Amino acid sequence: MSQPRQSRALVIVNTHFCSSNGEVVLGTRRGAKREAEQLSNILSRLNYKVKLMHNKTAKEIEDLYQQECCCEHGDYFVSIISSHGKEGVIIGCDTEGVKLTRIFQILSAEKCPAVTKIPKIFFIQACRGTELDQGVVVECDSGEPEPECFSDYLSLPPQTAVMFACSPGYVAFLNIFGSMFLQALLKVLKGEERHLALNRLMTRINWEVAFCCQARGTYEGCKEMPCFVTNLLQDVFPFSA
């Protein structure tokens, strides 16, 4: 009996940043490398063929997604990006930015038919601005989003979900032990919650970060609120191996 095709996972982690003249202009992201390796290991155990890439330039990040268009995929494509960033942009190790819309365009139905029909799931650990979230007690079920919050993501490829470490305009925290967001993802993937449908799994990560995590040191007490956007049309169970 032939073995089922493995789903694929692409993990990109940038920890060191230098401009074209060799000047270090962004801080080293201590703790990110070990965290990415832990996530790669757990995805491998969940029957993903994992490609873990360190310190890639903006152009190399684009090229990695171009290469996925030529690969044979299983039931899912998962990508984890851990880097510096700003709203709608991931920073390469050369300090140049690659727009998320560019990544999504590469994986569009026209350019990448190989992954058109399978769910594509992104977890993005990067700042989306410079604001600090001091945390509040929320007593309502929901609020009205800022009009521009997801304007860059209206052209998601079909069958795509994107989860961000923080809300638009805010920083995403990282220390030598890892990030709030990806540590919460790691905890969920190691536990029974991995069997949940993706939207419930992401909501569980929201809860974990919102209620169980806060910054230490210089930003003692600051909070973080992950959020996600999706155009999936059905429940999917990407980690219930």
Automatic annotation (TrEMBL):
InterPro entries: Caspase-like_dom_sf, Caspase-related_regulators, Pept_C14_caspase, Pept_C14_p10, Pept_C14_p20, Pept_C14A. It holds the Pfam family Peptidase_C14. SMART domains: CASc. Residues 5-131 form the Caspase family p20 domain. Residues 178-240 form the Caspase family p10 domain. It comes from the Eukaryota. PROSITE patterns: CASPASE_P10, CASPASE_P20. One of its GO terms (biological process) is proteolysis. GO terms for molecular function: cysteine-type endopeptidase activity. Belongs to the peptidase C14A family. This is CASP3 protein. It comes from Ciconia maguari. The gene is Casp3_0.
